[in-house]
Amino acid sequence: MISYNRKLISILAWASFSAVGGVCQNTTTPASPKPLVTDLYTADPSAHVFNGKIYIYPSHDIEANVPQDDEGGHFDMRDYHVYSMDKIDGKVTDHGVALDIKDVPWAGRQMWAPDAAYKNDTYYLYFPVKDKQDVFRIGVATSKSPTGPFKAEPAPIPGSFSIDPAVFTDTDGTTYMYFGGIWGGQLQRWHTGEYNASLKTDLGKDNEPALSAKVVRMSNDMLTFAEPVRDVQILDKNGKPLLAGDHDRRFFEGAWMHKYQGRYYFSYSTGDTHFLAYATSDSPYGPFTYQGTFMEPVTGWTTHHSIIEFKGRWYIFYHDVERSGKTHLRNIKVWELKRKPDGSLELIKP
Ligand code: FUB
């Protein structure tokens, strides 16, 4: 019920925002956050700066006529497009289909939120998709161009599971993958290390530590994990792990990592409470200390973002459902991310 009230407030706030035509923040962001793509539905935008240009790797939402359920069956996507922008309020170029599910030999259904990385003179596209047994795995595909087309490896990354890969290369050149998502993202099904298909949402143990996102160092070839995956532990200010029942703060899905002035910022969606939250650490492995919400709910159920620095300013790419009003037909947007002098993130009220 709490979550429905919040969504209602968010929708009313959004309606009044739209009615007055939005607000003007400054000259480097658009006058109001408009959908960046209007001919397709796009979501989960992972943005990167490669060779001085912004590239966006989103999900490509489609109307597949699958009924909505708590496991996200209605998100039945089948390919990826890559987009580029020379500047933040500039033209958005669609580079066409970068990877199609029919070209991933092990894939079954549901191509969800991807991410990309550059190393070894190669671009890597990381993507979660259910295998033919309906278990989410993370695949990797390569290209010599940031816009693809990408060629998928013949099998998922060994030892990978769940969804929402976010790949971060540290200032020392080491690359890490953060991943995971509960409920439809299946993270809870792996909590013993073995897959248990009967766990549909979470573990139902509200007073125990929340399920954690995962982090793993990538091998130099970027195609495999270099070590066993670890938990991304999020602690409160007293050093206690966030609890599973703490739906306003605990990790749900949509991890992202960025580094600012030597600190690691782990940001994520709280899922059923629809916030974007963040936690910080001195290490890419954590433990991370919870810092707060930095974006209030958008329209639509899901909340998924990425954060980049471009020409000395920071931006958040995210999605809402302005164009369709439907949870599974989303549109990506960009907005400036502001910080307080101590590095903490200012709250965005969409
Ligand atoms: O796009 C499908 C799923 O919805 C993503 O993987 C989640 O992060 C949520 O945005």
Automatic annotation (TrEMBL):
Annotated signal peptide: 1-21
BP GO terms, sorted: xylan catabolic process
Family: Belongs to the glycosyl hydrolase 43 family.
TM helices/strands, residue ranges: none
Site (Important for catalytic activity, responsible for pKa modulation of the active site Glu and correct orientation of both the proton donor and substrate): D164
Entry keyword set: Carbohydrate metabolism, Glycosidase, Hydrolase, Polysaccharide degradation, Signal, Xylan degradation
Molecular function in Gene Ontology: hydrolase activity, hydrolyzing O-glycosyl compounds
Phylogenetic lineage: Bacteria, Pseudomonadati, Bacteroidota, Cytophagia, Cytophagales
A Pfam family matched in the record: Glyco_hydro_43
Protein name: Family 43 glycosylhydrolase
